[in-house]
## 1
Amino acid sequence: MQDVWSAVQGSLRERLGPQNYEIWIEPIQMLPTSGDAVRLRVPNRYYRDWVRENFGKAITEELHRYLQARVPVEFQVADTGTEDAVDGAEPTEELEPIRPTAGRGLPTIPGVSADKTFRNFVVGACNQFAHAAAQAAAEAPGEQQYNPLFIYGGTGLGKTHLMHAIGNAMRERDDQVNVVYVTAEQFTNELIDALRYRRMPDFRDRFRKFPDILLIDDVQFLSGKDRTQEELFHTFEDLYKRGKQIVFTADVLPREIEMLEPRLRTRCESGMLADTQPPDMETMVAILRQKSEDMELQLSPELGQWIAGRLRGNVRELEGVLNRLKAAIRLHKVEPSLEVARQHLAGILPEAPTALNADEIIQTVSSFYGLKVGDVKGTRRLKQVVRPRHVAMYLVRTHTELSFPDIGRVFGGRDHATVQHACKKIRALLGKDADLRNTVETIERMLVR
Ligand code: ADP
Ligand code: MG
């Protein structure tokens, strides 16, 4: 019997991930069988509840598979000796089990952080659409319009956060739902192992049979990996046919991923494509506020603006910067102030103010398009200057703290609605026009130097 349990533990490790395995599965012992039931010994009640709730199904399935029989599974709690069946009625208890709550960092879904949720995702114009699409997929998984959901955009712009949020939201609503999250790299490695150790049936169970929703992060990694792409294609077909939800992320659009099989590309494109853009100043400040609140760090609006301005849309570095600030405040027992921030963040934030000004931006845009600054700033409606002008307005809006009326003044005294409209238009176009996106990114790189 011990061999059976070791084998089952091996599969569970594969199926639930090493982290879950070490915490929850490894400590379980199998007791000598009594009659027809398999008895598993767990350290305490809290433990039993958690394992039963989260891994009961997996344990039972794996045991049945190895034993080739549907034997009942019972847990025995080591500290009381009480027994009860995995899915049997709960005996009355004098002690309330402590229930782990989401956000305490306990593993609920392997690989998914419980603290990346929709609640703490800051929505701005830059990610509004991706956020809405992710919520829609989480609320009605498998619905054709959002299946698959393909979220794309630059690094650190919240793609993985949204993916985890989908998983967590579905789990919160229904704790029986099977969420599988892997990076494309993990998927590849698991496939290689499965092929090497002849465990393909397990691999297919895990990715085709088991999930109600499959989340695959960073699929650009699959570029040129033919065997993995083939497997993913069949995985997709299988899940899709059965109405299961699939979500992908990548740093670019499917058609911009080099060496992606056409049939996989068309599948990726067949549902909803949603992008995440770098946050504008307001959203950046809001994200900063959210993160500092989570970290119980109180920042003045002035300090928030200062940090956000220096990070220039780089959300990924934000947490590091805030951690550093928090450590400095604790260590030196000081209040967070601009002075303290200047002093202690010097090494990680650009020292000199890097905030761009409108003139610099307009100049760069003009030289990129080979136009005169006066034409870009001016009011003539020539076709060849209108687009560059809108791009310039958009970039000024995103990279400076100027308001719409301020920008209107810079551009020959236009009213704020014109500027607002131009910015909105560019933002919308960036979602679907890869050429424009390239242009804007190139200009941004020229600006940052
Ligand atoms: P990506 O997967 O697009 O590279 P991540 O989802 O890993 O980016 O985001 C990087 C970090 O920034 C994470 O800590 C994430 O929580 C945070 N983040 C990004 N966008 C937002 C947002 N809109 N609201 C809150 N946090 C965000
Ligand atoms: Mg990511």
## 2
Amino acid sequence: MAKLAETLAFKQLREHKRSLESVRIFDLFLLEPKRLENLTFEFDDFLFDFSKNHLSYQTLNLLIDLAKEQNLPEKIEQMFNGEKINFTEHRAALHIALRNFGAQPIKVDGWDVMPKVNSVLLKMRNFTEMVHNGFWRGFRGDRITDVVHIGIGGSDLGPRLVCDALEYYRKPNITVHFVSNVDGNDIQKVLRVVNPFRTLFIIASKSFTTQETLINANTAKEWFLLNTNAMEKDLAKHFVAISTNEEACQKFGIPTENMFHFWNWVGGRFSLWSAIGLVIALYIGFENFQNLLEGAYVVDKHFRYEPLERNIPVIMGLLNVWYTNFWNYHTQAIVPYDLQLRLLPDYLQQLIMESNGKRVNSQGEEVDYHTSPVIWGKVGTDCQHSFFQLLHQGTQVVPIDFLAPAEPVHSFPNHHEVLISNFIAQSEALMLGKNKEEVAKELSQSGLEVLERTELLPHKIFHGNRPSTSIFYKKLNPKTLGSLLAFYEHRVFVEGVLWDINSFDQWGVELGKQIAKKVLKQIENRRIDKDVSPSTKLLLEFFFKNFKR
Ligand code: F6P
């Protein structure tokens, strides 16, 4: 595979970008009569509108050439065929097997993984139904009313987002709580409100070695024993684990029967479809959990079989490469006009940045181009009153993904019309802007003094031409949510292939963990090592002076 910047398409795209720079996005609608046909896509309950981007049909074709030069079609097949595309950890990346409703086997090392996947799904279904119908009870015979999910990163963000987003589909009488942070406030807030006799704790950790999760799990266990006078054996009615590490779960005191397995070919940030999603099934019911999986499955099929020029995750990924490597846009905002998706930016931060925040290619060489942008965002309309000033008039150009449901889950249609008017207006305003003549005309009708008008004029100009993608869906439900998340997962994969990096490892989180261990030792011993930096020494001294255990 040629290096990205040395490919023919890359060079052509560089040239092409120069010619496109002087064309305003809005003018592309006039220049390209088939723009909507070529750059908007309806898929199931979704409408993707890429037309308000610095993207012509020619750009898309060149980007597709680039994708072909980077062997994207072959790489997609490799992923679906269970090849070890996670090349630094020598693992497959097979989250697609977790939502595979097809009859074909999916093999890793020659073994079909589907029987195992289906048997864990069956165990999840049985367990969920037992909790819901009251066959599974606390050790004293109380019904389970609260589920506390303890996990972090990929073992938290996905299930947390899905439960929050799908609260309208929740089962009656089950409340879920999430604890991720090692900050004691997190678990304290939850333990304050749950009744131990009626609570089920789910300890979710792929490795079962993650510091934060183990501390929180131990605190939960101690609190439970202290507040119930239960015996160790009674824990089995209140603690279950989800992990790949059976031995560590047993060591913690969770018997194998209470374990829900998954496998090292599931990346943490791609794991909500696995047993990590048990809390989702408990909250919204197993059928709805399956609908979520089905939503992802239909997108998997689309991603695998749709031609590149009509392939939505491919276009999402290519667009982002286009902005990162040719337009030098290094942040991207995610703005859902859907309160139910308020956690989407948090979730996508891990999915996108932990996957593609890398700088070494498959040959072990440092790349000479940028990779993942910084992902951030917040729910609309709130963010219109915080960072939208910068989006409209700041010096940075930030491509945005706007998302909204055509039909709300609530029952206030007048609110929804106002919400959607804002969703549509913002992308239009960012693209159109307001030029000097328009501002001058507006000011002339304002009744202000001439001097004041002249002073105000430059402040009221919007250059416009700011790009965004609109993702409109009929209604947020388990299936549409599953699809939406799968679109983003595959987008991440596309970008990783184009940049020739490994989207499935995360070595970048290790150094901080190692140093934190050393610092913790110094804190516990109240002794500062000689080799720490002067700044760290100062911080430790301040801490020792002000914190008494
Ligand atoms: O943040 C690093 C990370 O390894 C993530 O990739 C992972 O999702 C998270 O920690 C939690 O890991 P585990 O599920 O093993 O506790």
## 3
Amino acid sequence: MAIEIIATGRAVPPNKVTNEDLAERIDTTDEWIRSHTGIGARHVAASGIACSDLSLEAAREALNAAAQGGKGSPEELAQSLDLIILGTTTPDYLGVPPTACLVQDKLGAKNAGALDIAAACTGFIYGLELAAAFLMVNKDRKRALVIGTDVLSRIVNWDDRGTAVLFGDGSGAVLIEKTDAPAGGPGGRGLVRTILKADGSGAESLIIRQGGSRNPFKAGDVVAIPPYLEMNGHAVYTFAVKALTGIIERLLKEEGITIGDVARIIPHQANARIVQAAGKRLGIPEDKFFLNIEEYANTSAASIPIALDELNRAGKLKKGDLLMTVGFGGGLTYGGNLIIW
Ligand code: COA
């Protein structure tokens, strides 16, 4: 049996903020941002648009695509879902209710369980494996939606040039289905291997200190600026290059393949230089990596499913292509998936 991605969708807010726009309010330049990160712009959600709104849009796109592929109407597909799993760092509400439940309700997925997972930018990679395992352990389960969504614009300190330039908002979703195809080997399909890792010793490298149970808000607190993401850029950079190279090497070794067998690597889009450094270390040609960071910046858990949807809708993924996702993020978490398209 295989776990196949049968449809994809994405939602990116229309409001595009260019590097030049940012340079008007903070001490930065388009040249610095491009040369240090590869980022040219980011999309920022309008006020009133939250994680569940973007997630719902991406989920509906995925269901519509599956419906066009002859899998039933979007409503039937929603009702056929066994699980909705949403990777996010920026849920609608702090902890309760899970944002996935808001999506479940609006989608009409009345037979699905729904939960959020907090694996930061690695959320989609984690979510895909967890959803696949959920389908595999019970013969009656067949379909799940895996969504990665972040509205990082809400937790970025827009006065801090060290982080403000890096992030953007968006959502990506994939519909997965358990099928009778073989999971690996000749003619194999779907998710063939995943590595999920964590290194909590780096927890403070990416952190939102306020608002959780460690530093809760108390009545009478005066908040100068809202809770925001603090980052040790150098620590994350060093970790990220090591994480990417390690995961790529391990996935290849465990699967007994070489980089030549992989059609495309779809990395988490945090910084083009991180991806280039990892590629250089491993001797992998740059064009093996798909990068769309110039348009979207780092959309955290959304970056890989947005990239998958872009490639898919542009007809750039061929049936049978071996794809590798690889990513890292707060936690610190890291990992990767091997998927036969
Ligand atoms: N515009 C202009 N100058 C900036 C700047 C900006 N947006 N941000 C930092 N600088 C300045 C610094 O103040 C510093 O100036 P100084 O030399 O006068 O002190 C100089 O540029 C170099 O800063 P540095 O932090 O050494 O730059 P860097 O080359 O390490 O790049 C990051 C910084 C953040 C781009 C890089 O460390 C990085 O990408 N880290 C990983 C971040 C990440 O991926 N986070 C998400 C993980 S999911």
